[in-house]
Design a protein that fits this description.
The model is unreliable at about 25-40, about 45-60 and about 60-70 (pLDDT under 50). The protein folds into two domains: about 1-55, no CATH class; about 125-245, Roll (Nuclear Transport Factor 2, Chain: A), CATH 3.10.450.50. The chain is built from eight helices and five strands. It is of the alpha+beta class. A hairpin with a 2-residue loop joins strand 4 (about 220-235) and strand 5 (about 240-245).
């Protein structure tokens, strides 16, 4: 590298030195030559450095770092997104799993609740059937004719089961006792009924009925009354039976 610098300096001196007149000394004084050489050596090699800079195709590290800084920012954000996305997906998976477990548990609890098993509004055919059969049963068991007490007994044995058998006896005890003396005829007609609960072979109905009590003696007299009560019904074979009677009294 120093040989090249010396060659460049020598060419520079030759280019700037005027031609010597004839008879002049061919070589400068040793002191001048030494001084010029030292000055040339001390002078920074600008031309050589500029030539090396022009020939060098590699960018300056500082300049490269400055120019690459904006490009590194999107790359950094992309790498952060790549790191964050799996964590977000993992969190969503955990949340969805927890929601699925909660929904499954809630569905089981809802299926276990009796109210959720009520098909009174969805099973129209069964609802209509139980309404008709129980309305017929109520009209039969709550009607009594003093002249034909056996009809009431047959109705009770046909349409009553379980607790309703004893409840019916207690409710009509006064009628049975007074009927022969006063020649009573009790007639019950169901005016409206609603199925409150229906689950397979079990049902609960709300009954609205009109009752007329007629004395057929010398002074015939008829009294009317409205009744409202609920009955629990069970299906036995092809018919529905009254299993319990609720008059809403404590």
């Amino acid at each position: 590298m120093s040989t090249t610098r010396h060659l460049v300096n020598r060419r520079r001196r030759l280019a700037t030195t005027p031609p010597r007149p004839p008879g002049a000394e061919t070589d400068p004084a040793p002191e001048q030559t030494t001084a010029a050489t030292a000055a040339a050596d001390a002078e920074p090699p600008r031309a050589a450095e500029s030539t090396a800079t022009d020939l060098n195709t590699d960018p300056d590290p500082d300049a490269t770092a400055g120019s690459d800084a904006p490009a590194d920012a999107p790359r950094t954000r992309t790498s952060r997104l790549r790191v964050t996305l799996p964590a977000v997906l993992c969190a969503l998976t955990v949340l969805l799993g927890a929601f699925a477990a909660w929904a499954f548990t809630s569905a089981d609890s809802l299926r276990d609740e009796p109210a959720r098993q009520n098909t009174a509004l969805t099973d129209i055919g069964r609802t209509s059937e139980v309404k008709g059969r129980i309305s017929e049963a109520v009209g039969a068991v709550f009607s009594y004719d003093y002249a034909s007490p056996a009809r009431s007994d047959r109705a009770a044995s046909t349409y009553l089961t379980g607790r309703a058998v004893q409840q019916h006896k207690d409710m009509l005890a006064d009628v049975r006792e007074q009927a022969p003396k006063q020649k009573l005829v009790l007639t019950t007609t169901v005016t409206e009924s609603g199925v409150e609960f229906l689950d397979g072979d079990r049902a609960r109905l709300l009954i609205f009925a009109d009752q007329s009590n007629t004395r057929t003696g010398k002074d015939e007299e008829t009294t009317y009354a409205a009744a409202m009560f609920a009955v629990d019904a069970v299906r036995r074979g092809d018919t529905w039976l009254i299993a319990a009677i609720d008059t809403f009294t404590r």
